[in-house]
Amino acid sequence: MPRYMTAPSRALVIISTIIVALVLLLASSVMAAGPEPDTVTYRVRSGDTLWTIAGDLEIGGDIRGVVSDIREINDLDSSLIMPGQWLELPAE
To answer: pLDDT, tens digit, for every residue of 53-71?
Structure first.
């Protein structure tokens, strides 16, 4: 004798399926967001130079490499920066 689902049982299956689909969609969107950014935003102050900013980062090693990274990240053609300018800096 075949067993048929009642209307409340069908509704429960449909609702459960929708909930699982929403959870999977939410999980995939969180995973798509990716890892934390590799940079931090910094507003240039009066008297700042790329060299002083790079030195303040205390990343260690050769400051020339950090200055080069800052220039590359911000697509700077020179080392000239202005107060009020926003820079992306390598995260520690």
So the answer is: 999 887 777 889 889 999 9
Q: pTM of the prediction?
A: 0.58
| Distance in angstroms (rounded) separating the CA atoms of residues 75 and 84 | 17
C-alpha 90/C-alpha 39 separation (Å) is 4
Question: For residue 92, which amino acid is it?
Answer: E
3-class SS at 43? strand
Q: Which amino acid is at 1?
A: M
- CA–CA distance, 28 with 45 (Å, rounded to integer): 40
CB 92 within 8 A of CB 57: yes
Q: Give the count of beta carbons closer than 10 Å to the beta carbon of residue 5.
A: 10
